[in-house]
Each structure stands twice: as C-alpha cells, then as structure tokens.
Specification:
With 103 residues, the chain is mostly helical. The chain has four helices and no strands. It has one domain (8-36, 52-102). 68% of the residues lie in helices and 0% in strands.
Length: 103
Amino acid sequence: MQNYQNTPLETIDALLQLISNATKDAVAEYQQTGFGIPSLSSDVPHPTDASIPSVNLRKAIRTLEAASYQLCATLNHPSFLLVNVRSSFLRVYPQVTELDDEL
C-alpha cells in the first residue's frame, strides 16, 4: 500500500498553487465585469457591490480563503495558533471568560 501523505514542503507548494490559481480566477471574473478589481483604498462603493457575485467568483474566493487559512495554520507555531483561536473565540463569546473565573 502506498503512502499518499505529502511532505510539509509539498503541502505548502500545493497551497501556494491553489492561492495563485484562485487569485487569477478572481481577477479574471472581476475583469469580465468591466469595472476592474475593487480597491481597499476607495471610499466609494464598487459597482459590483450591489450585484450577486458569479458562481466562479464565489468559488475562487472560497478556495483563496481556505488555502490562505490553511497556509497560515501550517506555517504558524502550534502554541501561537492555539492562542489566536482562543482569542478569536473569546472576542465572539466574551461570556466564556466569566465561566473560566467560576471554575
């Protein structure tokens, strides 16, 4: 039986390829609208903000987000990752700290 598990470097390379391809796909979808890519520095709404994103754009963004999160999780030190996850959880559910104090 063959072992199909990737090495950490192979995993990182695969994630980078997913990120690159998804980014290119998203850019192509924005270019098809004729309005270009939204800018973070703009103080006016982008013309596509009022429309429903295409299936291809949603798929590209979903892939981009997932691969980016996985890459960060892969490269981050495990103890830092646990602290970040707990901190994020506590921002969403601050009442949990009250429960910790009671224990």
